[in-house]
Amino acid sequence: MSPQPTFWSNPIYLRTEQYRTEDNLADRQRIHELFSTNPQNWMVWVLGMGRVQAGQKLLDVGCGNGRLWSQNFSVKHPAELDVTLLDLSRGMVETAVSTTTGRVAHLSGVEADAMALPFPAEAFDRVFANHMLYHVPSPTRAIAEIWRVMHFGGRLVAALNGPAHMRELWNLIGQLLNLRLATVSSAVAFGPLAASAKLRVQFKRVTKHPFDDSLRVTDADLLWKYVLSTNALREMLPPETDLHSVEEEFKAIVNRAIQKDGYFFIQKEVVAFVCEK
Ligand SMILES: C[S@@+](CC[C@H](N)C(=O)[O-])C[C@H]1O[C@@H](n2cnc3c(N)ncnc32)[C@H](O)[C@@H]1O
Question: Which fold has domain 6-276?
Answer without folding.
Answer: Rossmann fold (3.40.50)
